Amino acid sequence: MKFDILTLFPAMFEGPLTESIIRRAAEKELVDIRVHNIRDYATDRHQVVDDAPYGGGDGMVMKVEPLAACIEAVKRERPAARVILTTPRGRTFKHEVARELSREAELILICGRYEGVDERVRELFVDDELSIGDFVLTGGELAAMVMVDAIVRFIPGVLGSAGSVETDSFADGLLEYPQYTRPAEFRGLRVPDVLLSGNHAEVSRWRRCKSLEKTRIERPDLLVEQVVTPSDRAYLAEFERALRQ
């Protein structure tokens, strides 16, 4: 899968995209990530990429000309690439969106800055606008890093265990159950006996129940969207009664 990231601050990507799982994915040629400096496409001597907004107001706006030139240069090599703008006004980037984007062969991520980009960039080039949450960052670089990290995990062969991505939090709409490893006891705290039993059916049920409990306490809003089974609903009703006691 090919990623092209358009930014004013390319050095920000040197750590997050060159270490750990993403580095190994690149070494295995499962991903190809290129970072492009938008300033390289400014035509004036000072490489100006922003200007005051028409109509007045605070802050600056990213100019259309350098961004257009950068996007078009990348598109000449990646004509089929889907162009995404990171922006607080975009649709929320979620687990399913990451899965959806992982099916693309090529993605171009534009990192917004300042008060945003000239609207004509959206009108001429952008296929999708995404936000990683209801808060404002100093720029879209961190959002782009988050998106790349989440998307890459869905690419076959990237993770050591193919099943890992299917058992993560949000994979089935619920938060993930607690995880344990050796030793079986630490400072008086023991691993739940069911996990040591070797009974896979009971382990599976325990994990499902703990996911339901965790989601009910931490993110009850997810249960509104999540399709739960009759046994899930019965367990949650019992759990609710226990909480009220």
Helix-strand makeup class: alpha/beta
Number of helices: 10
CATH architecture of the largest domain: 3-Layer(aba) Sandwich
What is the H level of CATH, i.e. the homologous superfamily of the largest domain? Answer: SPOUT methyltransferase, trefoil knot domain
Highest CATH level, the class of the largest domain? Alpha Beta
Poorly predicted regions are none
Which strand order does the major sheet show?
2-1-6-5-7
Question: How would you sum up the global shape?
Answer: elongated
Give the terminus-to-terminus CA distance: 52 Å
What is the CATH T-level topology of the largest domain? Alpha/beta knot
Mean pLDDT: 93
Helix residue percentage: 25-40%
Cα-atom radius of gyration: 23 Å
The helix/strand series, from N terminus to C terminus, equals EHEEEHEHEHEHHEEHHHH
* Strand percent estimate: 15-25%
Q: What's the story with the biggest beta sheet?
A: 5 strands, parallel
InterPro entries: Alpha/beta_knot_MTases, tRNA_m1G_MeTrfase_C_sf, tRNA_m1G_MeTrfase_TrmD, tRNA_m1G_MTases_N, tRNA_MeTrfase_TRMD/TRM10
Binding site for S-adenosyl-L-methionine: 112, 132-137
EC number: 2.1.1.228
Pfam families: tRNA_m1G_MT
Describe the protein's architecture and organization.
- The chain is an alpha/beta fold and 245 residues long.
- It folds into 2 domains: 2-152, Alpha/beta knot, CATH 3.40.1280; 169-244, tRNA(m1g37)methyltransferase, domain 2 (Trp Operon Repressor, Chain A).
- It is built from 10 helices and 9 strands.
- It has helices spanning 20-27, 64-77, 95-102, 119-125, 141-152, 164-167, 193-196, 200-218, 220-225, 230-244, and strands at residues 2-7, 32-37, 50-51, 61-62, 82-92, 106-111, 128-131, 185-186, 189-190.
- The chain has a 5-stranded parallel beta sheet, sandwiched between helices. Strands 3-4 form a two-stranded antiparallel ribbon.
- Strand 8 (185-186) and strand 9 form a beta hairpin.
- This is tRNA (guanine-N(1)-)-methyltransferase.
- S-adenosyl-L-methionine binds at residues 112, 132-137.
